[in-house]
Design a protein that fits this description.
The chain is an alpha+beta fold. The chain contains 2 helices and 10 strands. Helices cover about 15% and strands about 30% of the residues.
Length: about 170
């Protein structure tokens, strides 16, 4: 399910700029694949006492509230997420088909959206869930069952695609 225009472009742009300037990028994921992609672990329930960028966490939770108010309340509880991450992908690495199962929840829901101020459909980088490909525009968020195989669509242009995702308990 795509929530169209679920977040303000101003807040997305603020998170985008802060993410690009962050010193917290890592290459730990995916764990079962040698080809890693850049990621910021903004928040993890396992590391909740080790938040490295509280300002970025505040921005991301503000964005989650916008998504909740603009249609997300039909799909997820407004409890604090167990995970918030920002990922960077490009044309030089294909994403791996995977699932994300969170043991903290009965119904695993993820919310994914682009932070880039501009992203065109012809650049690729959409979202593949099961057999369906979703084209995402800045401000849109995909709400999906993370126990179903999913991945980022291949990127066809020499640009970095920056995405934000949340792990939540579904309704």
């Amino acid at each position: 399910m795509i929530l169209k225009k679920a977040a303000s472009k101003e807040l997305l742009n603020l998170i985008y700029r802060n993410a690009l300037n962050s010193k917290n990028w890592n290459f730990l994921y995916p764990r079962n694949n040698e080809e890693k992609h850049a990621k910021i672990n903004v928040y993890s329930i396992e590391e909740q006492h080790d938040v490295k960028d509280k300002f970025l966490l505040g921005l991301c939770t503000s964005l989650l509230l916008e998504v909740y108010k603009n249609g997300g309340k039909d799909y997820f509880n407004n409890n604090f997420p167990s995970y918030i991450g920002i990922s960077m992908k490009d044309q030089f690495r294909s994403d791996n088909l995977h699932t994300d199962e969170d043991p903290h929840y009965k119904k695993n829901i993820k919310i994914l959206g682009l932070l880039n101020p501009e992203w065109k459909k012809e650049w690729g980088g959409g979202f593949v869930h099961g057999e369906k490909i979703y084209s995402i525009e800045p401000g849109d968020f995909v709400v999906f069952d993370s126990t179903v195989l999913h991945k980022a669509e291949d990127i066809t242009i020499n640009k970095k695609r920056i995405a934000l995702d949340f792990s939540l308990d579904g309704i």
